């Protein structure tokens, strides 16, 4: 058996993750490594970072040109990921990589200089638009945000609604659907604009903007979004409660339960071709 990565998250950080559904792990990689991954973004875009008149696309889905394994690139981040997921043996190595297929959102002039209330933002969603969501989906283990550039407050960092996850977890416990629509029903327009999420957010009050310095890595609960995949579905019905991962414990807490005895999915796990991928083809 391969040796396990040493834990790096303190009890305080674990409690923060379970309460707020995310944790920031500082100083996981150097500026040099960040430049190696993302230093050529503006050249690849064909835009000038100092001339906004060249920013002809608000959102750009970039192709992958390089890939790196997380473990050697950011050992502290890798150790934290394994700690949250219950060990390296629960992580799918084929997905334990970062690449430079960035989604670059440069914003638009109409919103420049404005700061709406988080609940007024559009496009609230849970990532994972390429598969049918189940509460235990193996495709969604963690959302991992490595900061290849520093992000200050009110500078476009991802906004997280922590208390929305309880309603999303309950929805997936009761049923399943891609984009939170009935299976087989196509979304009307952009699936990320479905009112399912925005309706939940309107009744929420806990919002966090993801900020930090170059080299920081933010790890979020999969019902916020997803990145690194696990080998098997999450298991919420373990005989030994000590075997639950921190992520599994957090999901159970969202549901107000200590075990989902006998709970099983009732539909077929399926992949979905997201709208942005269809447009690229």
Question: Could you characterize the architecture of this molecule?
Answer:
With 281 residues, the protein is an alpha+beta fold. Helices cover 25% and strands 11% of the residues. The protein has helices spanning 11-20, 31-38, 41-45, 70-73, 75-85, 165-174, 195-201, 246-255, 275-280, and strands spanning 22-25, 59-61, 67-69, 97-99, 103-105, 143-146, 159-161, 207-209, 217-220. The strands form four sheets. Strands 1-9-6 form a three-stranded antiparallel beta sheet. The protein has a two-stranded antiparallel ribbon with strand order 2-5. A two-stranded antiparallel sheet has the order 3-4. α1 (11-20) packs parallel to α8.
Question: Which features does this protein show?
Answer:
281 residues; alpha+beta; three-stranded antiparallel sheet; globular
Short characterization:
With 281 residues, the chain is an alpha+beta fold.
The main pleated sheet reads as: 3 strands, antiparallel
Order of helices and strands: HEHHEEHHEEEEHHEEHH
Mean pLDDT: 82
- Strand numbers in spatial order across the main sheet: 1-9-6
Low-confidence runs = 225-231
User: How many β-strand runs?
Assistant: 9
Quaternary structure classification:
single chain
Q: Rough shape?
A: globular
* % residues in beta strands: 5-15%
| Beginning-to-end CA distance, first to last residue | 42 Å
Helix content: 25-40%
């Amino acid at each position: 058996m391969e040796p396990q990565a040493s834990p790096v998250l303190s009890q305080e950080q674990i409690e923060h993750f379970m309460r707020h559904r995310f944790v920031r792990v500082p100083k996981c990689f150097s500026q040099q490594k960040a430049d190696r991954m993302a230093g050529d973004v503006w050249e690849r875009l064909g835009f000038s970072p100092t001339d906004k008149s060249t920013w002809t696309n608000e959102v750009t889905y970039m192709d992958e040109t390089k890939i790196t394994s997380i473990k050697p690139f950011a050992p502290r981040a890798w150790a934290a990921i394994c700690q949250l997921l219950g060990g390296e043996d629960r992580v799918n190595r084929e997905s334990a990589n970062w690449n430079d297929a960035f989604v670059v959102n440069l914003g638009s002039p109409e919103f420049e200089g404005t700061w709406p209330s988080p609940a007024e933002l559009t496009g609230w969603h849970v990532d994972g638009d390429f598969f049918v969501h189940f509460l235990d989906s193996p495709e969604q283990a963690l959302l991992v945000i490595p900061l290849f550039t520093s992000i200050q407050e009110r500078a476009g960092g991802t906004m997280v609604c922590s208390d929305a996850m309880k309603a999303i977890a309950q929805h997936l416990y009761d049923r399943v659907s891609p984009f939170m629509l009935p299976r087989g029903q196509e979304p009307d327009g952009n699936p990320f604009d479905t009112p399912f999420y925005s309706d939940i957010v309107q009744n929420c009050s806990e919002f966090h903007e993801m900020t930090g310095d170059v080299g920081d890595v933010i790890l979020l609960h999969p019902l916020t979004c997803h990145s690194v995949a696990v080998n098997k579905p999450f298991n919420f019905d373990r005989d030994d409660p000590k075997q639950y991962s921190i992520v599994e414990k957090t999901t159970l807490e969202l549901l107000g339960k200590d075990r989902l005895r006998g709970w099983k999915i009732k539909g077929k796990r399926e992949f979905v071709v997201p709208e942005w991928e269809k447009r690229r083809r």
